Amino acid sequence: MSKRMSLSYSFPVFLIFVATATIACLDGLGVGKGLRFSGGSPFRIALFADLHYGENAWDDWGPKQDVKSDRVLSNVLDNETPDFVIYLGDVITANNLPIPNASMYWVQAISPTRIRGIPWATLFGNHDDAQFKWPLEWFSIAGIPEVRCPPESSFAGEKDCSFRGTTRIELMKMELLKNPLSHSQIGPTELWPAVSNYILQISSSKDPESPSVFLYFLDSGGGSYPEVISYAQIKWFQEQSQAINPNLQVPELIFWHIPSHAYKKVAPCRKSSIKSPCVGSINMEEVDSQEAEWGIMDALLNRSSVKAVFVGHNHGLDWCCPYEKLWLCFARHSGYGGYGTWPRGSRIIEMTEDPFSLNSWISMEDGTKHSYVKLSS
Amino acid sequence: MSKRMSLSYSFPVFLIFVATATIACLDGLGVGKGLRFSGGSPFRIALFADLHYGENAWDDWGPKQDVKSDRVLSNVLDNETPDFVIYLGDVITANNLPIPNASMYWVQAISPTRIRGIPWATLFGNHDDAQFKWPLEWFSIAGIPEVRCPPESSFAGEKDCSFRGTTRIELMKMELLKNPLSHSQIGPTELWPAVSNYILQISSSKDPESPSVFLYFLDSGGGSYPEVISYAQIKWFQEQSQAINPNLQVPELIFWHIPSHAYKKVAPCRKSSIKSPCVGSINMEEVDSQEAEWGIMDALLNRSSVKAVFVGHNHGLDWCCPYEKLWLCFARHSGYGGYGTWPRGSRIIEMTEDPFSLNSWISMEDGTKHSYVKLSS
Question: Which end of chain B, N or C, is surrounded by fewer C-beta atoms within 10 Å?
């Protein structure tokens, strides 16, 4: 079917009403302002990508992987002592979760950060609100094991137990409910069904009102809807960035989950080593980019203040490559859930305030560090 | 991931509790007994396959197709005056329905039969409870049109409007609620998540307790779970058929939606004409069979009483071919929703009681009939 889209509707269409919840203090434009440089020290961020908690949740293998993921997070946090953590999507593997509320796995993923008192933000990947996918084997002679619907299964108005997934909004609401350290936001309703669209300011050490860096979070879709950054999100980005940083004086970093098509353009040849100007250590698969693109890369290139984009999604890639005036970087597969057996780690971002500099490296579970790259100076 | 399945669970798994609802009178084994031969007359069934009501529900094209489907149903019902109608799955295109309750389209599909006072039964296809699939175009500059969540959108305990699909059980409950002419059943809970598993008896004209034919309905999955007939369903079929027809004296017909692998074995060569012993008029695509098979065909072949299997799913196929001692038949694409532009029609099944005979043909929207085939005598 590729019929003309019409805006005239012959029946009512419905909207999830979204409470725009925020924990960190916001300015009038909705920019979160809880983060700040402290005089003289660099500001360090750890990216945790593709943790995939809850993978194969029904057998022994899955929970064991999650314990290993806990260890990755703990080691990186203890080795790098970051000022801030970004969960870069695919925090959970919802399509493996035959439960009405997947938040227990979300909680597990943020716990190592929370218990260390480190603030964090999350954004959504394509697995976070995916519908449960019944394993084909459950229909064989092995069968579906004896199952039951306990009283506590009622959740968010769902009276019966169903496997239709926990929505992005439900997940985010649960995260925000009891976590003052979370800087995540349920983004503007006009960007629905994309949810994790928001901006955080890292304030100057000299003046908490003065921005030194802006961090933009975008929901690149997937799961319950297509893998795409919508035209509405692009417009929102353009309007917001113009309003808060009209003179392009404040450096801007961008975070989402699924690589854009531009990543394909700059990618090192498949399975070859990663050569300069790219920097990284694994190049084991093709870039799996978004389903469509409606202009986000042009919007970024139009702003000289945008220094780099950071994505996850491809577990077998961890490089940064230049793309015109900015850098396109993969994070590093951090979780034991999800495909791939490459050693786990975390991309670290470190910024200085004055003069601004942006450097990055990968910090492994075993404490080793590699792939240092200067992204802006 | 192809890890060993384990039956030891480390967290609670949940079950939708299902009320086994029935409208037509049942015997102790749950066999529906409302249908009966009338002395001397054949018993005629019309199969409506792949109606796909609600396709592109958001634009003008979709509702117009549904009106055309109404016309197909009305014409066939008026031309053939069947004693019974079977809706052979993909009654609706749930993945095109951004509404919390898809039952309004289900109601539309059964209306032409209901208003003529003809009894019917339904079974599920792979589109009936599919999750809404967001059109990629909605994320382009055209955008998602202004949408709203009206108060009446609350349904089955869902307080917010969501696009996560209407479940098989919800659809079936809604059908049964106000339709005494429906012979559908919500099948045994132990076959969950398959729902449309049940047996109807066509009773003898001489004795309403005595069976002349058994009709078996099986849910071949798809949508919210894999396209498969489970081992549990096979076991249920074996036990039920053995209990109600131990001596194989009563002829048995089988209905489900997605063709089994055996259909591939007997299929005429792609795009060639349909040659004897097969009978049919369109052979325009490959058989799109179930994802796995755990033995249903062996179970059917073990019973000499099983005369034929009827499926839908492939809109470009309408043939019957022999497979060992039974016949494998496609119905005919009946709806204007769904892919394909081949003229719409309905497979008709006609049985005589004594002696038993089973014939079939295809009855088109325009009143023409073709592809007569004797399936048993």
Answer: C
Taken in order A227, A231, A235, A241, is the CA torsion positive or negative?
positive
Position B15 pLDDT exceeds 60: no
Q: Work out the pLDDT band at B59, boundaries 50, 70, 90.
A: confident
Give me the pLDDT at residue B57, please: 82
Using pLDDT thresholds of 50, 70 and 90, give the confidence band for residue B27. Answer: low
The verdict on A99 touching B (C-beta cutoff 8 Å) is yes
Q: Which domain holds residue A84?
A: 32-136+154-376
Q: Which amino acid is at B77?
A: L
Backbone Cα Rg of chain A:
20
Name chain A contacts of B141, Cβ cutoff 8 Å: 231, 294
pLDDT at A9: 30
Residue B199 counted as domain residue: yes
A230 in reach of chain B (CB within 8 A): yes
Of the partner residues B17, B58, B292, the one whose CB lies closest to the CB of residue A149: B17
Domain membership flag for residue A3: no
A345 touches chain B (CB under 8 A): no
Please report residues of B whose CB lies closer than 8 A to that of A11.
57, 63, 99
Looking at the complex, does the CB of residue A55 fall below 8 Å from at least one CB of chain B? Answer: yes
Residue A151 sits at the chain B interface (C-beta within 8 Å)? no
Q: What is the pLDDT of residue A27?
A: 67
- Classify residue B73: in a domain, yes or no: yes
Check A59 against B3: CB less than 8 A apart: yes
Q: Which residues of B touch A136 (CB under 8 A)?
A: 226, 228, 291-292
pLDDT tens digits, B87-125: 999 999 999 888 778 899 999 999 999 999 999 999 999
Q: Give every strand in the sheet of B84-88, ordered side by side.
A: B120-123, B84-88, B43-48, B345-353, B356-364, B369-376
Nearest to B294 among A100, A139, A229 (CB): A139
User: What is the Cα B11 distance to its own chain's centre?
Assistant: 35
* Beta-ladder partners of B36: B203
If one counts the domains in chain A, the total is 1
User: What residue of A is the nearest CA neighbor of B223?
Assistant: A133
- Say if B121 falls within a structural domain: yes
In SS3 terms, B87-113 reads as EECCCECHHHCCCCCCHHHHHHHHHHH
Of A16-30, A91-105, B10-24, least confident by mean pLDDT is B10-24
Q: A156 and B159 in contact by Cβ < 8 A?
A: yes
pTM of the model: 0.89
DSSP labels, B253-280: EEE-SSPPHHHHHHPPPTTS---TT-B-
- 3-state percent helix, strand, coil for chain B, nearest multiple of 5: 20, 25, 55
Q: Cβ separation of A140 and B294 shorter than 8 Å?
A: yes
Q: Give chain A positions within 8 Å (CB) of B137.
A: 5
- pLDDT of the residue at B146: 54
